[in-house]
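Possible regression after last week's pipeline update?

I re-ran a chain I had predicted before the update to compare outputs. Posting the input and the new output here so someone can diff against the archived version. Not blocking, just want to make sure nothing changed silently.
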Amino acid sequence: MAFFMTNLQRIFIATGMVITASLVDFCDAKALSIPEKESFLIAQTLGGIERKISLEEIPLPVMSSVKAATGAEPTTAGVELKSDGSLVYELAGKNQQGFEFEVEVTPSGKIIEVDEQIDRSAIPENVTRALRKWLPDAQIISSWRSTRLGEFVYEFVLEDFWLEISADGRKVIINQRERS
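New output (post-update):
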């Protein structure tokens, strides 16, 4: 009987895995190769499910955290179910200076990331030098400061891609821009 139950459990597990795998859309999966090991790939945007929601659907701890972090009232909201099963709320709006902001928050109100559009005069000189070094003639659409668990990263949106430059100017990441 124990042997039969083990096989039955295996069948249920295998069926569940097949159903789960069939629900994942791999069309938007992006891969990044690591130069040292060209055959090694890292998947970047697998499995996340996003949707827009109304501000009334936002839990009070989430809304309170966003208002405290930005000093402003958000105007749009979304929720994302990450591939690891975690839930993240994404709220956006404009602050008192008229700059856009985007905030990612857990359901308990823990701030994960705050992105604030900034004026170019607020960008540190070492970040500006790194930008000029890699893209001397860049036509920047917008510039942002991203706070991620206490770490600052500066983001620059260009026509076909966007850059992330660490606050010390030593790390530059180029990301393909998603088309809406």
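Follow-up from reviewer: compared with the archived run. Residues 24-45 have pLDDT under 50 and may be disordered. Marking as no regression found.
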